[in-house]
Amino acid sequence: MHPKFLALIFLAVAANVSATPTTPCSTGTLSSYESSYSVPLGCSIGILDYSGFTYHPISNAPLPGAITLTPETGGFAFTQTSGLPFTASAGEIVQFEIDYNIIIDPAPILAGADNSVDPPSGNVTITEFFCNDSQYVFEGTCLTGFLSNPVQALSVGTIPPLSLSASIIFSTPAISFQDVGVLFTLNGTNGPSSFDGVDANSVVIGDVPEPAACFLVGLGLVAGSYTLRKRKR
Q1: Helix (H, G, I), strand (E, B) or coil at 211
Q2: What Cα–Cα distance (Å) separates residue 113 from each residue in 6, 154, 166, 182, 214?
Q3: What does residue 92 show for φ and ψ, rounded to 5 degrees?
Q4: Residue 112 near residue 74 (C-beta atoms within 8 A)
Q5: Whole-angstrom distance, CA of residue 63 vs CA of residue 2
Q6: What is the value of pTM for the model shown?
Q7: pLDDT tens digits for range 153-212
Q8: What is the rounded radius of gyration, in angstroms, for the C-alpha atoms of the chain?
Q9: Cβ–Cβ < 8 Å for 34, 83
Q10: CATH architecture of the domain with residue range 25-209
């Protein structure tokens, strides 16, 4: 490969790595997050950059403007914008999913997550799906293919063996990025169900070399080595 071409790749990757969000995440509706942070450059909470917010209303779901996201350390609290509980009437099933992407900037890894729901009644289940360094598709699956990792899940709820709060340590941690899907289910089949809010947070731990930085260094070494060999010839 020609060294000039390697240099162009190096500069392109460097520009992409340095283009990180600088806007802190603030309290807002899901619809505002979809419109403002659906692109790769989103908002930040500490060293975590959040973007790609998408909404999947499945059954009797509230409008995205009726859902408020409040930033917390390592994640968000999800509540109704009105301040009232999320509710499923008797005989009704309310289900919706909120997906987003987390980029780790800089090096520490996402080793786990915790989740809690407060205070629920009836049949409520909240499940987080995590695709570590892999793309989340929907309905609890990660994209299969190169460098894909299996989906890992964390559930809280009112029906045993679930509890109102839980945590997970990932069998495969996220080193560069994480795709998350949060599935909310209120099952009113046997009576009304409700909850006030959900706290979904990531656990940041450890210190490993930043993959993008390693890639840039490696690419620079390759380009330098190629040029040196060419001069010797």
Answers
A1: helix
A2: 39, 8, 9, 12, 26
A3: -115, 145
A4: no
A5: 53
A6: 0.78
A7: 999 999 999 999 999 999 988 888 899 999 999 999 999 999 999 999 988 875 444 444
A8: 21
A9: no
A10: Sandwich (2.60)
Token pair for 28: 């807002």
Question: Where are any strands of DSSP class E within the chain?
Answer: 28-29, 43-45, 48-59, 67-72, 75-80, 86-88, 93-104, 109-118, 123-132, 152-157, 165-174, 177-187, 193-195, 197-205
Tokens at 137, concatenated: 């598709």
Give 18-77 pLDDT, tens digit per residue.
445 468 999 999 999 999 887 767 999 988 999 999 999 999 999 999 999 999 988 999
What the block records as the tokens of 156 is 């809280």
Q: Which two tokens stand for residue 203?
A: 């656990």
Instruction: Name the residue with tokens 């460097």.
Output: 14
- DSSP class of residue 103 equals E
Closest CA to 79 of 89, 69, 88, 64: 69
